[in-house]
């Protein structure tokens, strides 16, 4: 399937693909690209060595596949992460 993507969209897809906790389903919902199409885009847009490094990193990673995640909803939040309230970082 052919998708008309802007350079900005391609940059965002690459960024999302590199993020450990962003599943391929999120890219599908936002940009309409299936996992295999994301892999093809990454192969086309990246240097071969960078693509191999990304592919090795992503393959089998639970967090990149919604059905394999240990949690259903929400995002992981570190217990040391500060709360942001009304644009001010609150103290613990």
UniProtKB/TrEMBL annotation:
Domain of life of the source: Bacteria
Xref: InterPro entries: CHP03643
Listed name of the protein: TIGR03643 family protein
């Amino acid at each position: 399937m052919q998708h008309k993507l802007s350079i900005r969209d391609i940059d965002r897809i690459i960024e999302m693909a590199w993020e450990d906790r962003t599943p391929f389903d999120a890219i599908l919902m936002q940009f309409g690209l299936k996992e295999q199409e994301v892999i093809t885009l990454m192969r086309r847009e990246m240097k071969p060595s960078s693509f191999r490094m990304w592919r090795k990193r992503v393959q089998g990673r639970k967090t990149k596949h919604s059905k394999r995640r240990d949690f259903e909803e929400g995002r992981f939040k570190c217990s040391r992460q500060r709360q942001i309230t009304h644009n001010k970082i609150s103290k613990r």
